[in-house]
Design a protein that fits this description.
α5 runs parallel beside α6. It is globular and about 50 Å long. It has ten helices and seven strands. The protein is an alpha/beta fold. β6, α9 and β7 form a beta-alpha-beta unit. The protein has one domain: Rossmann fold (3-Layer(aba) Sandwich). The longest helix has 18 residues. The strands form two sheets. Strands 1-2-3-7-6 form a five-stranded parallel sheet, sandwiched between helices. A two-stranded antiparallel ribbon has the order 4-5.
Length: 267
């Protein structure tokens, strides 16, 4: 799996370097989780024409839409669309926009995201609709910890709890950094686990880079009849030494020299 995710990390950096724009830090912190989610957990056919007509498919929402390159890399390498499309990231007319867009009709993208704080409310609505239809599909929503500072997130958590949505799995990419610095200095979320428990969630805390732990926890949450939240402790910029735990790499493209150094580390 590490070889696979290193290929994805390399593609994330190439996309952002080519576009001269993007968000490497948060994409690198969540790509391990997305890889396990799509390879081991989600029930989603790769043939998207079939998938969208398969109503019992699991739904995934990347609420932290600025990490789109991680999702695009995973989807491409698993066959949702050709890998060579990754080179068009953020280009005019491309289906691979800076934030996932359902209007672009890119295979694998369920909804448009990117305005932080909105993805979970969409997920709650989807989960409610699926339950009303007696559909066994699950809804997974990946949030950033900086995004958790949005009030709309807590409204959605409250509603999910009130509705007892056992078909919703909330995942928090807790890399402890946001664009302006440390989350604990800007607006602390702690104690996040206790807050989520107070909202009625069954809470799991995991190493967001441990593939076996990610898989085991996600599958357990998927089988659970409780409202579940997974706090994934991650490293922003994971896999590239000079990007790790550096807030400055939140939304910055590597130059030629930096890309070459990063790719050398990943090979």
């Amino acid at each position: 799996m590490k070889t696979f995710t290193n290929v994805l990390r390399a593609d994330i950096l190439k996309m952002i370097h080519n576009a001269k724009s993007g968000h490497p830090g948060g994409a690198l912190s969540c790509v391990d989780m997305l890889s396990v989610l799509y390879k081991k957990v989600l029930n989603v056919p790769v043939e998207w024409d079939k998938a969208i007509n398969f109503n019992q498919r699991d739904r995934f929402i990347l609420s932290k839409g600025h990490a789109s390159t991680a999702l695009y890399a995973v989807l491409a390498h698993l066959g949702f669309f050709p890998v060579d499309m990754l080179a068009s990231f953020r280009m005019l007319g491309s289906k691979l926009q800076g934030h996932p867009s359902s209007r672009a009709q890119l295979p694998g993208i369920e909804v448009s995201t990117g305005s932080l704080g909105q993805g979970l409310s969409i997920g709650v609505g989807l989960a409610l609709a699926l339950r009303l239809d007696k559909n066994p599909a699950k809804v997974f929503v990946l949030l950033g910890d900086g995004e958790m500072q949005e009030g709309s997130v807590w409204e959605s958590l409250m509603n999910a709890s009130n509705q007892k949505l056992d078909n919703l799995i909330v995942i928090v990419d807790k890399n402890n950094l946001q664009i302006d610095g440390n989350t604990c200095d800007i607006k602390s979320l702690e104690p996040l686990d206790e807050k989520l428990k107070a909202f009625g969630f069954e809470v799991y805390s995991i190493d967001g880079h441990n593939y076996e732990e990610i898989e085991q926890t996600m599958l357990e949450a998927k089988k659970s009849n409780k409202l579940c939240a997974i706090i994934a402790n991650t490293i922003k910029g994971k896999g590239v030494s000079f990007m790790e735990n550096m807030a400055g790499w939140h939304g910055k493209a590597p130059n030629d020299e930096q890309l070459a150094k990063a790719l050398e580390e990943l090979c």
